[in-house]
Amino acid sequence: KFTMPLPPATPLSCNNAANNYKSFQIFTAVALVYLVLNLLSSQAFSLLERRMNPIEQTKRKQA
């Protein structure tokens, strides 16, 4: 599987949480962005893998 690092988001969210005292909301927002990006990239790479699989290509040509 492919994971996408998000290094700038964590220090920025720590600084923002220290200033606002809203750490739960900030870290939840960062986690949701990270989750959405990972889900989208995972689906995109799965689709790409299926389309580039030689066995699947021969099945599509036969159909």
Walk me through the structure:
- By secondary structure, the chain is mostly helical.
- The chain has one domain (9-62).
- Helix content is 81%, strand content 0%.
- The chain is built from three helices and no strands.
- The protein has helices at residues 9-20, 23-52, 54-62.
- α1 (9-20) runs antiparallel to α2.
- The model has no long low-confidence stretch (mean pLDDT 77).
Tell me the overall shape.
rod-shaped
List SSEs in N-to-C order: HHH
* Low-confidence region ranges: none
Q: How many separate domains make up the residues?
A: 1
Main beta sheet: strand number and arrangement? none
Portion in helices: over 70%
The count of β-strands is: 0
**Count of alpha/pi helices:** 3
Topology:
Elements: H1 9-20, H2 23-52, H3 54-62
Helix pairs in contact: 1-2
Features:
single chain, 63 residues, mainly alpha, 3 helices, 0% strand
Summarize the structure.
The model has no long low-confidence stretch (mean pLDDT 77). By secondary structure, the protein is mostly helical.
